[in-house]
Amino acid sequence: MEPVIVVNLKTYPEASGKSALNIAKIAESIVRETGRKIIIAPPQPDLALICSSVSIPVFSQHVDNVKPGNTTGFVPPEGAKAAGAKGTIINHSEHRLVHADIEELVERCKALGLLTIVCTNNIRVSRATAMFHPDYVAVEPPELIGGNISVTDANPEIVSGTASAIRSVAKGVGILTGAGVKNGRDVAKAIELGTDGVLLASGVAKAKDPRAVLLDLVSGITD
Amino acid sequence: MEPVIVVNLKTYPEASGKSALNIAKIAESIVRETGRKIIIAPPQPDLALICSSVSIPVFSQHVDNVKPGNTTGFVPPEGAKAAGAKGTIINHSEHRLVHADIEELVERCKALGLLTIVCTNNIRVSRATAMFHPDYVAVEPPELIGGNISVTDANPEIVSGTASAIRSVAKGVGILTGAGVKNGRDVAKAIELGTDGVLLASGVAKAKDPRAVLLDLVSGITD
Amino acid sequence: MEPVIVVNLKTYPEASGKSALNIAKIAESIVRETGRKIIIAPPQPDLALICSSVSIPVFSQHVDNVKPGNTTGFVPPEGAKAAGAKGTIINHSEHRLVHADIEELVERCKALGLLTIVCTNNIRVSRATAMFHPDYVAVEPPELIGGNISVTDANPEIVSGTASAIRSVAKGVGILTGAGVKNGRDVAKAIELGTDGVLLASGVAKAKDPRAVLLDLVSGITD
Amino acid sequence: MEPVIVVNLKTYPEASGKSALNIAKIAESIVRETGRKIIIAPPQPDLALICSSVSIPVFSQHVDNVKPGNTTGFVPPEGAKAAGAKGTIINHSEHRLVHADIEELVERCKALGLLTIVCTNNIRVSRATAMFHPDYVAVEPPELIGGNISVTDANPEIVSGTASAIRSVAKGVGILTGAGVKNGRDVAKAIELGTDGVLLASGVAKAKDPRAVLLDLVSGITD
Question: Predicted ipTM?
Answer without folding.
Answer: 0.96
